[in-house]
């Protein structure tokens, strides 16, 4: 089976991140596509994924199982919501939520921003996939 996996956004890695790659039955090779924010902060205990140092990409490459191929690894600055919505986030909130606020409007606004940025980075990760697969997993 021809399988691809995509990862996106802020990396949250521990040494156990590769467990998923071993659990895919029938996949002889898994192609990996990463679109990761480069302006993130990792807690001290997450900075070294494996023994040794190096960039996140280097550490991921070192820890990959033999059946995984790192096809594309892109880092980009997390955009501000103002860059994505020059007319303002308030207009987006109004269009999406209208006046139906369950919680405080600022909490809803911040949740909507986080959700949008998560979806934005997932879209960018899927855009990296450059061939047909039997299965693409996020």
Short description:
With 138 residues, the chain is α/β, with parallel strands linked by helices.
Account of the protein in words:
The structure is a single chain. The chain is an alpha/beta fold. 38% of the residues lie in helices and 21% in strands. It is built from six helices and four strands; from the N terminus they run βαβααβαααβ. It has helices spanning 19-22, 44-47, 56-63, 81-84, 89-97, 105-128; strands at residues 2-9, 29-37, 68-76, 135-137. A four-stranded parallel beta sheet has the order 3-2-1-4, with helices on one face. α1 links the parallel β1 and β2. The longest helix is centred in the last third of the chain and has 24 residues, at 105-128. The protein starts with a strand and ends with a strand. The mean pLDDT is 78.
Descriptors:
alpha/beta; 138 residues; 38% helix; 4 strands; 6 helices; 4-stranded parallel β-sheet; single chain; elongated
Number of strands: 4
Please count the helical segments.
6
Order of helices and strands: EHEHHEHHHE
Radius of gyration: 18 Å
The biggest beta sheet reads: 4 strands, parallel
Structural class: alpha/beta
Runs in which pLDDT lies below 50 for 5 or more consecutive residues are none
- Lateral strand order in the biggest sheet: 3-2-1-4
Name the helicity range: 25-40%
The global form is elongated
Strand content: 15-25%
Mean pLDDT: 78
Distance between the amino and carboxyl termini = 16 Å
């Amino acid at each position: 089976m021809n399988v691809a996996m995509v990862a996106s956004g802020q990396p949250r890695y521990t040494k156990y991140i590769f467990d998923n790659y071993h659990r895919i039955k029938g996949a002889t090779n898994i192609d990996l596509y990463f679109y990761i924010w480069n302006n993130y902060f990792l807690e001290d205990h997450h900075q070294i994924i494996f023994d040794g140092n190096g960039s996140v990409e280097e550490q991921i490459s070192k820890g990959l199982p033999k059946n995984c191929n790192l096809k594309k690894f892109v880092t980009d600055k997390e955009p501000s919501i103002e860059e994505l919505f020059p007319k303002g986030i308030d207009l987006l909130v109004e269009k999406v939520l209208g006046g139906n606020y369950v919680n405080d409007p600022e909490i809803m606004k911040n949740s909507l921003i986080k959700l949008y940025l998560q979806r934005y980075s997932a879209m960018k990760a899927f855009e990296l996939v450059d061939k047909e697969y039997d299965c693409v997993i996020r």
